[in-house]
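#struct-help
A.M.: can someone run this one for me? Single chain, 99 residues.
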Amino acid sequence: MVLWRELLGAQLRTARMAQKRTLRDVASSANIALGYLSELERGRKEASSELLGSICLALDVPVSEVLSGAAQQAFEREIAATVVRPLPLKSSKSDAVAA
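D.P.: on it. Structure tokens below:
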């Protein structure tokens, strides 16, 4: 199952790291606790729309870009999960004795 909070957190972390900014810097700019931003980036907490907007503003990244990136990741994971993989065949004891 795809957890939306994990996908959003990954998008926020990617945006922050691309700008070579620290958690402390972004948390301060967004006026949120550093620990809370860390929890959001790791997918441990869910961000409200207001909080997500504040973080995106601090990162100078449109909320729509973060959401569309997370949606694309969700789509890719869902597609990967639907790929049918053949299961290995188990040999029965009678097959082992016959061999």
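A.M.: thanks! The first helix runs from residue 4 to 18.
D.P.: also worth noting: The radius of gyration is 21 Å.
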